[in-house]
Amino acid sequence: MGNKLRVALGQFGALTDEMGKFAKQLGFDSIQLNTLGEDESLWEYEGLLALRQQCESYGLTLEAIENVPIQYFYKIMLGLEGRDEQIAKYQQIIRNMGKAGIPILGYHFMPDGTWRTSYTVPLRGGARGMGFDLDLVQTGAPDRTGSLPIARDPEYLKLLNSVADRVFTEEERWEYYEYFIRAVIPVAEEAGVKLALHPDDPPVPMVGGIARLFHNIDGFKKAMEIADSDAWGLDLCLGTTSSMLGGADTVREMIEYFGSRNKIVYGHFRDVQGTVPKFNECFLGEGNFSPVEMMRALKKVGFTGFIIDDHVPWIDYDEGWGYRSHAHQSGYLQGIIDAI
Ligand SMILES: [Mn+2]
Fold first, then answer.
1. Which domains does the chain have, with CATH numbers?
2. Ligand 1 center to 340 CA (angstroms)
3. Which of 76, 129, 226, 266 lies 20 to 30 angstroms, CA to CA, from 334?
4. Tens digits of per-residue pLDDT, 100-148?
5. Which InterPro entries match (predicted)?
6. How far is the CA of 239 from the centre of ligand 1 (A)?
């Protein structure tokens, strides 16, 4: 535990009894949680400590938390008035996590989140995957209706619409990233917490009038140089990386470049068919890359963190979080690791 390549279960907001037993009975020793919730007490030291202990009561290590609520973070990402207060809160969350013994905080830098244009791309046997087609969205104009957080949260659409008259350029967004990362990295170093950056999904230079920074390898290299710290690394989403120009070649390049520098903190192990401008999510083994090859590549560069399956296709009769599909994808990954 903790020092070799392993699969964890993740991408749920709270540890229910159903989830804890599911994880343990399927052979996982650790989990990742995403976002938790907007309730402030969840992010205080006592709340985080209780969460870690709750996981341990099921025999599960809490590997990481991915994403604070976007409402805590959007002024930082857009350089809006009030970002300093949001940064102060973010710094406190990092300190609280360190004290509570939760070593990794994942984040992204997409104020308008993940965009998809279809939820029903046909896969084998009638299963369905999410898809994106750049032709179906406006890139420069402030039309943000393809964004998943907006689909989930109309309140957040109101926030983004409050800046609908503006286009956010690449240059200014780099300034916002730099301002943020320089403020939080020293706190992360001191707290013993690693910050793990997820790529922009879809990986395109701009959608909805907001420039994206992390849509190719150069963006990550630049961010790594700015941060210049052992506390900076990647939440390497192989699915998003596979949808970048270059597809499987880009996945290989990212693993080799950042893995050999010990900059992969953890990974999302999923795949897509096609690359930008048009791609869709799919089952492992039916996408752009060979899952066995990429697992070997991770091992070869000395990656010793955890991976999760991330998004999974919708399977008929699966409900809510998608236990059937997650069981299949995660089990597939466990099998590959055992085999190599
Ligand atoms: Mn991902």
1. 6-339 (3.20.20.150)
2. 24
3. 129
4. 999 999 999 999 889 999 999 999 999 999 999 999 887 776 677 777 7
5. Man_deHydtase, Xyl_isomerase-like_sf
6. 6
